[in-house]
Every structure is written in C-alpha cells, then in structure tokens.
C-alpha cells in the first residue's frame, strides 16, 4: 500500500519545475526541493520530511485542519506555556473546548467535563476561551486559504476543504507543493500549525488529515482507497456515530472491509438511506463538491453555569442576556429568524431542546426572550440545569421581520427602546452601557460556550 503519511517542517526556499520529477521521488516539505532519487532524506537539505506518492501530482482536493487551534493560539501568545499541558475551557462546571497535544496524551479530550479533564491532567493550565481572538486568527487562516483557490469550503473556525483543480499554472506548482508551502507559511506568519490531507474526494481528504496529527501531511490516492479503508473501523465513515456503530456491531460489522463485501441493496434494506452512504463511502466513492458558501441555518448562544440552577427566577437574567447576544448577531448579519429554539442541559448531562415558530421573522431580543421565556417556564419543574442556550433558526432576509403588533400595544415601545439601546451600545464600542431590568444587578456566574452558526 502506498498511502503517504508525513509529519512536518520548518521554513525555506522555492521549487524548480515539476516536469523532470517523478511522483514516487516526491519533494521535501522543508525546502520544497524535488528529489532526484527515492532516498530516505532530502537530497538537497537532508531533511527526513519527504513526501512521496504515485498519485502525488494528480490529486487536488484537500482538507486543512489547524492543530489544537485554540490551545495553539494561546501557546503562541504565551511562549512560557509551550511545553506545558494547556486546556481551553470553562471552570470546574464547564467542558473542554480543546486541549493541546501534551494534555491529550494525559487523556484529556474535547467536550470532556472539566472536572474529569483535571483529574486526568491536574497540572494543566486552564484558560478561558477568547473567541474574539480565535475568530481573528481564523480569519487570517481563511484569507491564506482563499489566496490558494476560490474553492474554499469552511467547516469551522479552523478547518476547511479546498479544491485546487486548475491552479497549477497560477502557482507554478501542483496542489501538493502549494499545500506544503501553505503549511510552512501558516507556521511562519501566524505562529500555529495545521495538518493537511490530500486526496481525490472530500471523505478521504478528511480521513487523511487526521492520520498524522499534529503537523501532518498525508495522501490517499484512488488506487489504494479500497485496501486502505478495508482495515479501518466503521466509525471512520462520516455519519457513523455511537448508535449506528453499535447497531452495525450487533450485526457483526466492525470494519469497513466487511461493508465492502455487502451489496448496496442489502445495506439499504438494513439501514435505509444511511445504507447507501455506507456502500459508497466504504468504497471511497464520494462525489460531493467543495462548496465555497454555506447558508447559515441558525444562530445561537449558550452558557454553562458554575453550579446547577433550577429556579425560574435565576434563569431569567441569563436567558435575557443570551437573547440580547443572539439579537445583536442577527442585526449585524442583517438576517432574521422564524423559529426560536431553547436548549437546556440537565445535571445528568442530558440535553433537550424546545422550539416555537413565530408568525413573523424576528431580529429583536425582546421577542426572542419572551418566546424563550414561555418555553422555559414549562421546563422549570424542579429539574436542575447546568446549561441554557437560546437561538433562532429558519433564517432569511429581515425585510418583513417584526411588524407592528396590533394585540400587544407595548411591543412597539419595547422595540423602539431596544433600538435606542443598540444605538448607545454601538456609540460606546459595543459595551453594555444600558441594561434592562431583567439583567441589571442580577449577575449569575456562568461559563460562556462558543456561539454557534450552523
């Protein structure tokens, strides 16, 4: 099997023309020099970081994923933490947003409750998330991606698919070398690292980027796809979570190779639409294109409490503050939503959502809050909650949003007051210079979770 897995790099020079090179000889990721022979080390600089693959210069679809992004940004800004385990997340009642690789070796994982993470790695440095800083760095990374190709499909703040088909003439080198150069630049110019997966389809590009983290560069070609996938567990397939993997195991299916022996009709008979996906992805068949733009489906904000809350009155100011945050983001994006969604997570970590569709779309914190309040009232039955969130979905243009309410005569006054508060907030740089009675003087200690665009 010829799957190439290569970890990374420092900095350096440029490359000579590709025409005289053989893909099996490859190039050096440190200096980008084309190799004259299939040696273990670069014949120009002596580096062992040489990538070779029979299809190296034919593949154009990549998945780029920044390594432990939040933690990497914090370590960049605080060099004294370079060799220490770092966890980004809330207090003892929060969860892990991400952890550096030192902490991961100790058993820390994303979404792990913080108390468990600190049990696994008590010496870790815990840092509260600074989403504004991470978003700014994410925009820098995104701009660098878009300088390579217009076909960039973001998946999150720190990862994306790229299609570099047809860009060889523009860059003067094939996609593999463009990506290697990108990984060097992101470390030199931004101070973080990324892992890259190169393949012929999205599914395998994503799989490849996970093979050699951190600072990895892996290639999976068409010729090896079936053999490469055969030994992998079914959980490697996108969409196969705990429930489906348990069902597959009950049916005696643990590896992708076992799926490869089952006919499409049989998989669809057993697993419905998911059976069709299992059939194609198990064989490395994925015709999804890289889509540069995704419509945002929802905007939400949530927070985790330092201690569980059950009383309706204790939850009101938090719900109001979150509603105002969602409203500001809707207005900034010039969109409105028809459906208000309330999210709650109990002390047992089980989540539940409740939603209500409005007759007209809204951008107003007042409508988001009052609707969320009605939903919340029904759920405050003595249950203790560790998290609350509010959001809106069914998004669209705000042209017909928030018409005058003929039944609620005070709604118009509240909307005007909200507009005045927004104007004051904008004047003073976004600071909460004016608060409503719902939140004024009623502070509850919470741990913010990242806002969500889905």
TrEMBL record:
Keywords (A to Z) from UniProt: Cytoplasm, DNA damage, DNA repair, DNA replication, DNA-binding, DNA-directed DNA polymerase, Magnesium, Metal-binding, Mutator protein, Nucleotidyltransferase, Transferase
Enzyme nomenclature, EC number: 2.7.7.7
Residues the record marks as active site: 159
Site, as annotated: Substrate discrimination: 70
Location of the UmuC domain: 61-241
SUPFAM superfamilies: DNA/RNA polymerases, Lesion bypass DNA polymerase (Y-family), little finger domain
Sites where the protein binds Mg(2+): 65, 158
GO molecular function list: damaged DNA binding; DNA-directed DNA polymerase activity; magnesium ion binding
Bilayer-spanning residue ranges: none
Catalytically driven reaction(s): DNA(n) + a 2'-deoxyribonucleoside 5'-triphosphate = DNA(n+1) + diphosphate
GO CC term (a single one): cytosol
Cofactor: Mg(2+)
Cofactor note: Binds 2 magnesium ions per subunit.
Entry's family note: Belongs to the DNA polymerase type-Y family.
Assembly and oligomerization: Monomer.
Protein's recorded name: DNA polymerase IV
Protein encoded by which gene: dinB
């Amino acid at each position: 099997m010829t799957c190439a897995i290569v970890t990374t790099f420092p900095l350096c020079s440029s490359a000579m023309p590709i025409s005289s090179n053989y893909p099996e000889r490859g190039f050096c990721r440190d200096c980008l020099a084309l190799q004259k022979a299939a040696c273990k080390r670069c014949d120009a600089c002596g580096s062992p970081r040489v990538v070779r693959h029979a299809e190296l210069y034919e593949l154009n679809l990549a998945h780029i994923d920044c390594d432990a992004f939040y933690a990497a940004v914090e370590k960049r800004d605080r060099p004294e933490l370079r060799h220490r385990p770092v966890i980004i997340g809330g207090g003892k009642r929060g969860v892990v947003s991400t952890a550096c690789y030192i902490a991961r070796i100790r058993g820390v994982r994303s979404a792990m409750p913080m108390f468990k993470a600190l049990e696994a790695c008590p010496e870790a440095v815990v840092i509260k998330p600074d989403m504004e800083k991470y978003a700014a760095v994410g925009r820098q990374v995104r701009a660098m991606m878009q300088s390579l190709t217009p076909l960039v499909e973001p998946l999150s703040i720190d990862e994306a698919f790229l299609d570099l088909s047809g860009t060889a003439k523009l860059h003067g080198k094939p996609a593999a070398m463009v990506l290697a150069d990108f990984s060097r630049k992101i470390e030199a110019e931004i101070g973080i690292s990324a892992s890259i997966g190169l393949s012929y389809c999205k599914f395998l590009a994503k799989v490849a980027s996970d093979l050699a983290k951190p600072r990895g560069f892996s290639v999976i070609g068409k010729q090896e796809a079936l053999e490469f996938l055969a030994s992998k567990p079914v959980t490697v397939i996108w969409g196969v979570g705990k429930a489906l993997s348990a069902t597959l195991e009950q049916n005696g299916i643990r590896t992708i190779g076992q799926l490869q022996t089952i006919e499409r009709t049989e998989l669809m008979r057993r697993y419905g639409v998911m059976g069709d996906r299992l059939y194609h992805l198990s064989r490395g068949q994925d015709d999804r294109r890289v889509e540069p733009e995704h419509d945002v489906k929802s905007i939400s904000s949530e927070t985790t409490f330092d201690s569980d809350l059950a009383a309706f009155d204790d939850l009101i100011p938090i719900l109001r503050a979150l509603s105002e945050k969602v409203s500001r983001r809707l207005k900034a994006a010039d969109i409105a939503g028809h459906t208000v969604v309330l999210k709650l997570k109990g002390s047992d970590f089980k989540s539940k959502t409740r939603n209500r569709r409005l007759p007209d779309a809204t951008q107003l914190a007042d409508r988001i809050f009052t609707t969320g309040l009605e939903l919340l009232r029904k759920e405050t039955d003595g249950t203790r909650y560790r998290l609350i969130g509010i959001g809106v979905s069914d998004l669209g243009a705000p042209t017909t949003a928030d018409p005058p309410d003929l039944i609620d005569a005070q709604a118009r006054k509240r909307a005007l007051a909200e507009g005045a508060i927004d104007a004051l907030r904008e004047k003073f740089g976004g600071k909460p210079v004016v608060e409503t009675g719902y939140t004024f003087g009623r502070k509850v200690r919470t741990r913010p979770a990242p806002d969500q665009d889905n």
